[in-house]
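Side project, low priority. Logging it here so it doesn't get lost.
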Amino acid sequence: MARDTNIELRNTLIYQVYVRNHTEEGTFKALIKDLDRIKALGTDVVYLLPIHPIGEKSRKGELGSPYSIKDYYAINPELGTEDDFRELIDAVHQKSMRIMMDIVFNHTSYDSVLFNKHPEFFYKKDGQYTNRVGDWWDIVDFDFTKDRRLWDYLIENLVHYTKMGVDGFRFDVSSLIPYDFMKEARETVGSINPDTVWLSESVHGHFLKEIRDRGFDGLSESELYDIFDMAYDYDAHPYLEAYLENRGPLSDFVFWHQKQEEIYPKNYIKMRNLENHDFGRFAGLVESQDKLENWHAFSFFAKGSTMIFGGGEASEPHHPDLFNKDTIAFSGKDISPLIKTMRTITNDRLFYAGVYTIDQPESLEAIRCTYTLDGRQAIGIFNVGSDEGPVDVTLEDGEYTNRVNGDTVNVKRGQIHLQRGPIVLVSEN
């Protein structure tokens, strides 16, 4: 049974920040200076990649992966002090936004505080401490079955940051963490702040199957919705990649989005994002600005919350290095106006409570979505293939305003003409 999630969270804009590379200084204090601009995008949640000290043993790159954590209770001194972090929390709250932390409870670094003090908490294979995923050589996995004290330690860590003022948690590879542990953690945190937002980084389906085939436990996304408010869109992501790389049709991606309406709880919330710290910049995957803007508009219009990875609003083509200092340039074409417009359009009950459909207009490389609620209707048409041609719409003939750019769109005989840019029409009948 899915938890009683507030579906208004579908109208949430999350802004993902890699503090190290977000500014030249790479600090909390420097990020505070950028909060006005981030807020102006329409941001509701500022989500930070892990902020803890990074392990040195088997480190990747010069500075290491922020997901190879040495001490859950400490702050990476490269980013600032705990007082600086508290100042950031206060600054985010003062601008009426929430702050979300990245939580990494699947593993730690090999030189972590916990591994040194309690090696019995960790996973062993053939007598050696290791992890269950071979290319993650810089980390050692927990074994949640060995000692109840591990559960208590990690849950208390969530309580610690909740009391500090953190409003939400994004759980790294949540599919690999025991269900009962996460459910208890959710209940404990909820007793302190019932409005805490929980975001699941559920894994790709093929990875989940691989883990299960190797004899390990892994949670499906449907199970995770018992605990989390929203989940990554990684079930559909492989089909998007295949389309962009000419390995599969657009129809596969569209079909999977529609399938989500059938296989998940009624109140499910997908977190839509075109890029993040793990996957390449979207501006480097599409060949035209028109396509880039259509995909971004779609990511807002599609049912669910939306995440922007810092720099995405500047159509930044270079993906920052996760393991080294690599400051985001913010050098591409600024699409902040489009983001602000789509955020304004979709900040409406119609887009979180309406009946949602998604399909592909016949013979066109485009995506068509609709919402209907209380006699109102919104239609979004996103030309992701630079096609031309007529598109059927369920609107009465007449003139409508494209909410994206203010242009007039004529509906004739139940059809409109596909444009290069995104189209959003709203009927108030």
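Brief comment: The chain is about 30% helix and 20% strand.
Revisit when time allows.
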